[in-house]
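<discrete_fold_record>
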Amino acid sequence: RSDVAFELDCAWAWLGGVAPFDLAKRYADRIVSMHFKDVDPSRGSNMFQQLVAPGEGALDYAALLPNLDLVTRAIGYVEVDAPADGLAAAAGAARFLSDVRSKWHG
């Protein structure tokens, strides 16, 4: 085990060309936290403008989240860099992620 831990940001991993689950699988014992956000490429070429709440973009959180739960116990945080309404984005993302988990965990 390494003394180096890190936070997995699912959107930035995806934008960097790495599948977030592949990264999580490879470094599961080093991940201490995760940022859950999504990417909507239709919002323009600026990557920062593409960042949206989980469930509003191209990442398949319905498949990703249950698989992340299988390989890491790291805590996940909703993060959206520049939402129009931060509280609404956080609340919607929390509901979405809770729904995904309830379907998986029953």
Observations:
- Helices lie at 10-15, 20-27, 47-50, 61-71, 86-105.
- The CA atoms of residues 9 and 56 lie 16 Å apart.
- The mean pLDDT is 92.
